[in-house]
């Protein structure tokens, strides 16, 4: 998009002329070398890892920790950032005490190189196998790992996995790049490195390691042994809400910078990064940017995935169906806020592992506040994407724990039913939308089967019970949960509530049972 009426373009030459209130790198960019190769250069990585890394560099981390960012599919990020010398603005937005939106803008400088993998996979492999590279970090979203969401196993039939096993010189997926890149390092006699997932997956480091080893064993068992014994795969919990950047954002940020930035990112001020301190070849001190190094990230991951992401997904499906476009719009509905508060307080929190020092009440209230942030305009449709890849770790682990404790789960069931009904691709007002999900086709087929089963079962609750039985029988997402009558009944009852009363009615109907 052309931004008219502004000054020049953001680039190295423009840094000195930026308004005083815009934070800028402040370290010697010309002296910076690449130490990190990041695969999956989306908005999240640019607002999280790169922002934290930039703060570390400003605080004096070694100048060998610059980032090479790799887009695995599209050229748009490179095309926008190359003319800007890799510079882009990060706008942190929230509301002040009176509810008015405000933003703090800073320019991130640690992205030194941007590659587009499909244009030249060799260059990416060479970067991973460069002597200076010591960390390969990854944000490719849940579906980018090519695993079966319920079991966590590598899907060896996935076309990208098949392609990458057959084409070591030109991989296209993240596992292929990592394994073939590590293979080169080993062949060149270079030291092992750290491979670090920053995606919202449970035990993301362990999961990534297992996927990489499964793939590597098919390439060369000795390579798999080397990776297993010498490379590190720390787990981490990452948290920052980063909505997709819009043209309106670009205009607002250009106004703050006085120059055009074609590829800025917008995020909330809040940031968490809890990462296991297991690195094979060193790391920057990211604490300056808000990171925490721990021995075991698991309890933090469970907390975050179940509370933040579980609540986010619950909100998203119900909101898309009700026609609420943004998260803050949904949060302004008293029914939604109360529902999420109860879902967390009564159903999710009892399943969380202990975390010494955590004030869970404060965490929950803070989270509701973050969701209500009116300055983000976070689209519920964005969060609703890829539900098949998200539900297991966000909602279904909690469901399993509730079942094991023989505890009720009406809120979790409403969230799951919300997803299942969302799969119809039509909201309550009859507006049609696309269900974006790698398993969309199979899910649509399931949905038809479930509708037929419901018709055959007659009317009302019996129909929705039959419907829920078919939907929750979808094993790639639910595993064996579909065999669990208490779960199927709860989902059937919730779906019946949503079908008969709509989202607003169902949220209201949930309330009486929620008085402690
Ligand atoms: C969201 C997350 O889009 C989604 O699925 O739930 O991206 C969420 O905003 C982040 O995980 C917050 O840390």
UniProtKB/TrEMBL annotation:
Keywords: Oxidoreductase. Residues 298-494 form the Mannitol dehydrogenase C-terminal domain. It comes from the Bacteria. Residues 35-287 form the Mannitol dehydrogenase N-terminal domain. The keyword RNA-binding does not apply. It holds the Pfam family Mannitol_dh. It is an enzyme of class 1 (oxidoreductase). Its EC number is 1.1.1.-. One of its GO terms (molecular function) is oxidoreductase activity, acting on the CH-OH group of donors, NAD or NADP as acceptor. Coiled coil: none annotated. The keyword Oxidoreductase applies. This is Polyol:NADP oxidoreductase. It comes from Achromobacter animicus. The lineage of its organism: Bacteria, Pseudomonadati, Pseudomonadota, Betaproteobacteria, Burkholderiales.
